[in-house]
Amino acid sequence: MTKALVTGAAGFIGSQVAEALEARGHEVIGLDLRSGDDVRDRAVLDRLLPGADVVVHQAAKVGLGVDVGDLPDYASVNVFGTAVLLAAMAEHGVGRLVLASSMVVYGEGAYDCARHGRVRPRPRSSADLERGSFEPRCPRCGAGVAFVAIDEDAPTDPRNAYATTKLAQEHLAANWARETGGTATALRYHNVYGPRMPRNTPYSGVAAIFRSALEAGRAPRVFEDGGQTRDFVHVRDVAEANVAALTGGEPGTLTAYNIASGEPHTVGEMAAALAAQRGGPEPVTTGEYRLGDVRHILASPQRAAVGLGYQARIGFAEGMKEFATAPLA
Ligand code: UD1
């Protein structure tokens, strides 16, 4: 039995991680801002950390951010909070960290050009997006490119405040592991969905936005042409990945894993699946775009299968069927 401090234990993912740990007989100490405990508060950590074997760090400011006014808050909660946590772990001799990271550390997904092989397309220009040209192009010859699953060795390219702070958390955790001999595992979540997902806010992911719209009797508004690809992974699968990360890994290093379903779908397909389950209204494809959105990102689940023995169990059709009527938070 492991004693785990779960940060963000009252949140969408954290609460289901805590439940999965308890279901496996582990002891969970919950830390959450909602009950007045801040991960940036050293006194809170000094109270909760003694005796813990592992910290499962889910607490974070999430989403995309609204504008640069959000930068200090992202940096404070995600970067400073993790730094305070790691320093306290070192002092209390807690030698294992499981970190909730994100696929957003990669930026745009991986692409192959017929002439130039593996390439990293530049962010799409507003001129291209404006005229409905949504597909990234080869940065060398401008030709169309084919997207491929991204693996953990892909270069990182964080493109917003949230992404930047998630990558910073990984770097800080790697520093901690190196200096203390601790074992750090970063779980790069793809698009997590499922029961208790927070409702539509400026910080919500697309699955929650569509689900909230349908509940209100409004049509999901699908941006671009709906052909953007994501890997939607169910929150209970994500929770199981956290359980799997309690063991293994290499002392002194951070190992990163994609946590995905391995079953990519387009945003248009996701909207259609949810709308069908609820009996409408039908999604509308609007051609709107958000500058900075990536077009396709899908994951290779290979390394997590080998290193963690993790494999998603809840398929797209089954998961979306449940999510269509599951309670939101
Ligand atoms: C999302 C999360 C990110 C998280 C990542 C991996 C947000 C805002 N983004 O990134 O924090 O790390 O998953 O879990 O929480 N779209 C529509 N209609 C809408 C809103 C969005 O079609 O009403 C489209 C977007 O244009 C985009 C796609 O849906 O192409 C996904 O959007 P979103 O879920 O917001 O962001 P991700 O980049 O997938």
What does this protein structure show overall?
This is NAD-dependent epimerase/dehydratase family protein. Pfam families: Epimerase. InterPro entries: Epimerase_deHydtase (IPR001509), Lipid_A_modif_metabolic_enz (IPR050177), NAD(P)-bd_dom_sf (IPR036291). With 329 residues, the chain is an alpha/beta fold. 35% of the residues lie in helices and 18% in strands. The protein has ten helices and 15 strands. It has a six-stranded parallel sheet, sandwiched between helices. A hairpin with a 3-residue loop joins strand 5 and strand 6. Helix 3 packs parallel to helix 5, helix 6 packs parallel to helix 8 and helix 8 packs across helix 10. The two termini are 30 Å apart. The mean pLDDT is 95. The protein binds uridine-diphosphate-N-acetylglucosamine. Uridine-diphosphate-N-acetylglucosamine (UD1) binds next to strand 9, helix 6 and strand 10.
Distinct ligand kinds: uridine-diphosphate-N-acetylglucosamine
Range of strand content: 15-25%
Main sheet: strand order: 2-1-3-4-8-13
Question: Uncertain segments of ≥5 residues (pLDDT<50)?
Answer: none
Instruction: Label the structural class.
Output: alpha/beta
The string of secondary-structure elements, in order, is EHEHEHEEEHEHEEHEEEHEEHEHH
Distance between the termini: 30 Å
**Apparent shape:** globular
Roughly what is the average pLDDT, rounded to an integer?
95
Radius of gyration: 20 Å
Q: How many strand units?
A: 15
